[in-house]
Design brief:
Structural class: alpha/beta
Order of helices and strands: EEEHEEEEHHEHEHEHEHEHEHHHEHE
Bound molecules: NADP nicotinamide-adenine-dinucleotide phosphate
Largest sheet: 7 strands, mixed
Radius of gyration: 20 Å
Shape: globular
Number of helices: 12
CATH superfamily of the largest domain: Medium-chain alcohol dehydrogenases, catalytic domain
Number of domains: 2
CATH topology of the largest domain: Quinone Oxidoreductase, Chain A, domain 1
C-alpha cells in the first residue's frame, strides 16, 4: 500500500563526478519484484480529475535499464499538455505520466555499469509518477550529496532545454541580448541563470511582480510585466530601437507573433513550447526581409535524432550543478497522490520554477 510499501535503504556516499553511464555488467541484480506500488495514471484525456491513483506491480529493469526507488518526480508543462490530449505524438490513455525522476538505484538490468544505491536523476519516456520506475541507464545524471532529490528532479529537462536553446540552437554570444518568456517558470528560471552567467544582457517576461522579482534575483537585467506593458514596444525602447538578438519562446500564440517583431535583424527565435495552447505562426516574408530566423527545439526528439549533440551539454551542466553555481528553483512540492493539485497549479500559472511530486 501507499503508506506501508517498503523499507528504504540507507543512503550511500555518492561519487560527485558527473557522468552518463556506460554499459558494463553490474554485480547487482533484481532480487524481489513481487510488491505492488502506487502510481498515478491518466485514465483518459481531460482535466486534472482524470489523474487517478492505481496500484501496479513493481516494474523490472530490462537490459540496459535501472530500477529507481523514486524520491522525487519533476512535473513538466508537457505532462499537462499530454493529459489534455494536446501533445503532438503524446501517449494514449491509460498511461502513467512523468518524464524525469530522482532517487536511488534499486536494481540493474543486464549490461548496466551502475551500482545499487547510487543517487541519480533519470530522464524517462513516461511512467515517472510512481514509487518505482525503470529508466535507461544512458539517461542518468549522478546526483551529488550536496543536491537534494527534490532539486535533482527539477534539473535535467529544464536545464538541458534551456542550455541547448540558448547555446546549441540559439548560438548566444556573450555580447548579445536575449529575451526569456515565462522567465519565472521551470525552463525560464534555468534560462535566465544560464544566459546571465554567459554574460548576455537578459530580458525576461512574466505575469506578476513576484515572478519578476524572482527572475531579477536570478540574473534578469530587464524584468517586464507583459500584462501591464507591451513587451515588444518595451524591448524596442530598452534597446534604442535595435531589437533583440535571441528570444526563447515556450509560450507560442500572440507571444510568438510579437516576438518576431521584437527581433533585431539577424535575430533568432528558438520556439520550444506553446504553454498558451496555441502554436506560433509567422509570415515568411517578415523573416526574409528582416533577416530573422526561427528554430524549433524538442528535447526528446533531439535525443532520439542526435543523442551526442544533446549529451554534449551534460558535463558542463552537471559540473555547474555540483559546484552550486546554479539554483534549481523548486516553487512547490506535492505528495505524489496529489498530482492533480500539482497539475492545476501549473495550469493556473500559480507556480514558479519547478513543481515536484514526492512519493
Ligand atoms: N521543447 C522541449 O523539449 C521542452 C522542454 C521543456 C519544456 N517545454 C515547454 O516549455 C514551456 C515551459 O515549460 P515549463 O515546464 O518550464 O512550464 P512553466 O514555464 O513553469 O509554466 C508555464 C508558464 O507559461 C506562462 N504562460 C503563458 N501563457 C500561459 C497559459 N495560457 N497557460 C499557462 N501558462 C502560461 C506562465 O508564466 P507567466 O504567468 O509568467 O505568464 C506559466 O507559469 C511549455 O510550453 C513546455 O511544454 C518544452
Amino acid at each position: 500500500m501507499w503508506w506501508m510499501r517498503r523499507c528504504r535503504r540507507s543512503r550511500p556516499t555518492d561519487s560527485n563526478s558527473p557522468r552518463i553511464s556506460g554499459g558494463l555488467p553490474s554485480l547487482f541484480r533484481l532480487a524481489d519484484v513481487s510488491e505492488s506500488v502506487l502510481a498515478i495514471e491518466a485514465s483518459e484525456f481531460g482535466d486534472d480529475s482524470v489523474l487517478r491513483q492505481v496500484e501496479r506491480d513493481r516494474p523490472e529493469p530490462g537490459p540496459g535499464e535501472v530500477l529507481l526507488d523514486v524520491e522525487a518526480v519533476g512535473v513538466n508543462f508537457a505532462d499537462v499538455m499530454q493529459r489534455r490530449g494536446h501533445y503532438h505524438g503524446g501517449p494514449e490513455p491509460p498511461y502513467v505520466p512523468g518524464m524525469e525522476a530522482a532517487g536511488t538505484i534499486e536494481a540493474t538490468g543486464d549490461g548496466v555499469d551502475r551500482e545499487v544505491g547510487e543517487r541519480v536523476v533519470a530522464m524517462l519516456d513516461g511512467d515517472g509518477y510512481a514509487e518505482y520506475a525503470t529508466a535507461p541507464a544512458q539517461a542518468l545524471f549522478d546526483v551529488p550529496e550536496s543536491v537534494s532529490f527534490v532539486e535533482a528532479a527539477g534539473f535535467p529537462v529544464q536545464f538541458l532545454t534551456a542550455y541547448l536553446c540558448l547555446h546549441d540552437w540559439g548560438d548566444l554570444d556573450e555580447s548579445e541580448s536575449v529575451l526569456v518568456h515565462a522567465a519565472a517558470g521551470g525552463v525560464g528560471t534555468a534560462a535566465v541563470q544560464l544566459a546571465s552567467r554567459h554574460g548576455a544582457e537578459v530580458y525576461g517576461t512574466a505575469s506578476t511582480s513576484e515572478k519578476l522579482a524572482l527572475a531579477e534575483r536570478l540574473g534578469c537585467d530587464h524584468p517586464i510585466n507583459y500584462t501591464e506593458t507591451d513587451f515588444a514596444e518595451e524591448t524596442a525602447d530598452l534597446t534604442d530601437g535595435d531589437g533583440l538578438d535571441l528570444i526563447l519562446d515556450g509560450v507560442g500564440g500572440d507571444t510568438f507573433r510579437k516576438s518576431v517583431d521584437a527581433l533585431a535583424p539577424f535575430g533568432r527565435i528558438v520556439a520550444y513550447g506553446a504553454a498558451s495552447g496555441e502554436p506560433g505562426t509567422v509570415d515568411t516574408a517578415t523573416l526574409l526581409f528582416g533577416n530573422k530566423s526561427v528554430e524549433g527545439f524538442h528535447l526528446g526528439r533531439a535525443m532520439q535524432r542526435d543523442p551526442e549533440r544533446v549529451f554534449a551539454a551534460v558535463p558542463e551542466l552537471s559540473a555547474m550543478l555540483a559546484s552550486g553555481d546554479l539554483e534549481v528553483v523548486v516553487g512547490q512540492t506535492f505528495d505524489l497522490a496529489d498530482a492533480a493539485d500539482a497539475h492545476r497549479a501549473l495550469e493556473n500559472r500559480e507556480t514558479t520554477g519547478k513543481v515536484v511530486l514526492e512519493p
